[in-house]
Amino acid sequence: MDPDSVKSTLSNLAFGNVIAAAARDLQKEMVAKDKAQAAPASHDEVDLDELLDDPELEKLHAERIAALKKEVEKREVLKRQGHGEYREITEGDFLGEVTGSEKVICHFYHREFYRCKIMDKHLKALAPVYVGTKFVKLDAENAPFFVAKLAIKTLPCVILFKKGIAVDRLVGFQDLRSKDDFPTRALENILKTKDVANFCGQRMYIEYSVIVSFKCSKI
């Protein structure tokens, strides 16, 4: 056989072996990569199962449920005390109402005053949201004693009480840029700034309701 032909044949065989080896290496690499990509999913599943059975996590969950339940119970007590709605009271009710809750917003109004009706609309919208605060209104004409005692000169007048003490007031629409078309959010922000608008676990109440509904649906 011609030496050059033999050399060429050996060279081709060597090249073929290199290609084959490279192909095997590539295949191994691809298999390893596939396994690596599949591993995290399996690992995550194992970790999730472990978390679901984790006694520490179960304890935290139980504590959270207990806290939510406590907030819901507190909310229900406040609602029985007249929170969560915008109510009209009489002069005879006044002292009991403003001293019976930690935070009270009382609107002194006149039935014929247009701006009093505007204030009514906004306070009525806020009362169900801020259950931690009691929202009431009192006809100024039928409450001359407290109108004089609180030196009310302009209506509408919204008196803010904390623990039975008048701590601040909104006179007319002075704090609302004297505009009749102010948004409820504007009044809401003022009341929050003055620290008399309390949610009383509104979000926690919703969260608890969702959890209870979820648990019931699984029974």
From TrEMBL:
Residues 88-175 form the Thioredoxin domain. This is Thioredoxin domain-containing protein PLP3B. InterPro entries: Thioredoxin-like_sf (IPR036249), Thioredoxin_domain (IPR013766). Pfam families: Thioredoxin. PANTHER family: THIOREDOXIN DOMAIN-CONTAINING PROTEIN 9.
